[in-house]
Design brief:
Blueprint: H1 2-22, E1 28-34, H2 39-56, E2 60-66, H3 71-83, E3 88-92, H4 94-103, E4 109-114, H5 117-120, E5 134-138, H6 143-153, E6 159-165, H7 169-184, E7 188-194, H8 200-208, E8 213-216, H9 220-224, H10 226-236, E9 240-242, H11 245-251, E10 254-257, H12 260-275, E11 287-288, E12 293-296, H13 298-303, E13 313-314
Parallel strand pairs: 1-2, 1-3, 3-4, 4-5, 5-11, 6-7, 6-8, 8-9, 9-10, 12-13
Antiparallel strand pairs: 10-12
Helix pairs in contact: 2-12, 3-4, 6-7, 8-10, 10-11
Length: about 325
């Protein structure tokens, strides 16, 4: 009898060892929903992918999808991720975050390139942590400093036009803050909005007819149409201050901008912690880029005769 029991125990031990040896490592699937293709968002997505791959290697598969500027497509993409039971969704830009948050209340969602989470998700008394299944990173640079840049670089300017897409909640928020700051300094401010890319050139033309300087916040439609905006503003002799460096590179004179690639890296590291069970998404505060940089477009600064202070960094091609 003892021999039989011993044989059974040995058999169980061998089975257990074989089972442990053959168990595959945990695999994760991450869905990426990016609103539109333009350099800032592209950089954030690439930083996210690079950081996640560095942390998890082949243990993570990334389904990277782009809505091509179609807000309704963000909902379709995110609902598809939910149906596929991905382990995490990364939403790049405000409409993508809104779509992801609406699609699921259980799958972890991380936003990036989001200016203000309280505005984007209509949160009351937002204190820095979204809670639930949502967190992420913000691309908010100090808006008062961006507005002051207009005054410092263009001291003779009296009229400023703010251009943005009316469908982007975070653009509305930025326009509110910049308008209040500039009007508090005695400048006249007009807000001109476009519904989509089809209106951009006409709205820019209208703005240039009355403004001394244009301001473009971190607006995704404007970013994807930066060349079209520049093609109107530059011949009209109207300089532009922008909310981020990639738009400034195309049509702006100067900006106070963050590094979107590094913002994506931060988001990727947050995702890795969630997937590895080291953190709970609802307990993770939104992370902000700490050291925005004053940058300028050398060609356009020279063309408009703008004296650039020594603390600005030239944008490299």
């Amino acid at each position: 009898m003892k021999k039989i029991i011993a044989l059974l125990l040995a058999a169980c031990l061998v089975f257990a060892l074989c089972a442990c040896g053959s168990s595959a490592p945990k695999k994760f699937t991450v869905g990426v929903c990016q609103l539109v293709q333009h350099p800032a968002l592209d950089s954030a997505t690439q930083g996210f992918i690079d950081a996640l791959k560095e942390e998890l290697g082949d243990a993570v598969e990334i389904d990277n999808q782009n809505a091509s500027g179609d807000i309704a497509a963000c909902a379709t993409i995110c609902n598809g991720f939910v149906a596929s039971k991905v382990d995490l969704i990364m939403a790049n830009a405000t409409p993508a975050l809104q779509a992801a948050a609406a699609a699921t209340d259980s799958i972890p969602v991380l936003g990036t390139s989001i200016t203000e989470y309280g505005v984007a998700l209509d949160l009351k008394d937002f204190n820095g942590t979204v809670g639930g299944n949502v967190s992420g990173t913000s691309d908010l640079a100090p808006l008062d400093q961006q507005a002051q840049m207009i005054i410092d670089l263009f001291p003779e300017a009296k009229n400023v036009a703010i251009l943005y897409c009316s469908a982007e909640a975070n653009s509305v928020y930025q326009a509110d803050v910049v308008e209040a700051y500039l009007e508090g300094k005695g400048l006249n401010v007009d807000r001109l909005t476009f519904a989509d890319s089809n209106d951009v050139a006409l709205v820019t033309q209208t703005a240039c007819a009355s403004a001394d300087v244009l301001y473009i916040p971190t607006d995704n439609v404007a970013a994807s149409c930066a060349e079209a905006i520049g093609n109107v503003a530059e011949p009209a002799g109207i300089p532009i201050i922008t909310g981020e460096v990639n738009v400034c590179k195309v049509c702006g004179v100067a900006t106070l901008s963050i590094d979107y690639y590094n913002l994506g890296i931060t988001t990727g590291k947050m995702a890795a912690k969630i997937l590895k069970g080291e953190a709970k998404v609802g307990e993770m505060p939104v992370e902000y880029f700490e050291n925005p940089v004053k940058m300028f477009n050398q060609e356009l600064a020279a063309k408009f005769g703008v004296q650039i202070p020594s603390d600005f960094v030239a944008i490299e091609d």
